[in-house]
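Q: What structure does this chain adopt?
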Amino acid sequence: MFHDVDPDLLLSHEGVRYKDADSSILGSGGFGKVVRGECRGQAVAIKFYIKSDESEPFRHYREVRKELNALLRVRQHPFLTNIISVSLCSLCLVLELAERGALTEILFSPKLLDRIVLFRNAYQVADALRFLHGIDVIYRDLKPENVLVWSLEEHADLHVKLIDFCRANFATSTGLISCAGSPGNHAPEMLGSANKEEYTFQVDVYSYAILLYRIITRLIPFTGYDLGAKINLTVIAGERPQWKHVPVATFGFPTLTEIML
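A:
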């Protein structure tokens, strides 16, 4: 399954070092966990995958291969996370580490971002999506948790990068039908996939608008609904996050609000 991978990318288990402790965990989810570690003399993020059960013994290998395929296609793009190496012994991907964490933490911080930095954040995410769509990849899981922050300084060229391609998929000529992503970020046509409704790159455009909503208002959309299923039904019915009661949306960042709408 990995015979065609560049040998320079392959590592033995000893090629990565990390502490097996809660303090080293950067994130976790259905795929497994991401921990802080070291590889080839630099600090890295190591993504470990949960082993498959007996009914599907090689599923985790396929998941790694799928995400690796996407990472190799986007390698060296300035606003997409870069793959450093892959280890088959412990089955993990070694990725760039963003010391400032995810955009979520910044949005929940009481400190306001400089206007130019906020606009650059929005631009760099949009440019990353543009590139992905140009190589026929639908990202499908755009949210603040998947936007890592490199710098908040105005003079910096790099502010954010997209991570996590486990939900990404290559587009087909007719579109995709499987639902992927997180409640509140799903486009309505994706939620109709139970009825075999096909969707295209436009689902990422919708999720980008939701991300702009988070950046502009610093609010979580659909907070009145505690279950993902209720949020999905609300979106299918045509309801969208409320923004008119937030002054900054009208008087602070009207151009971003216009793009969001």
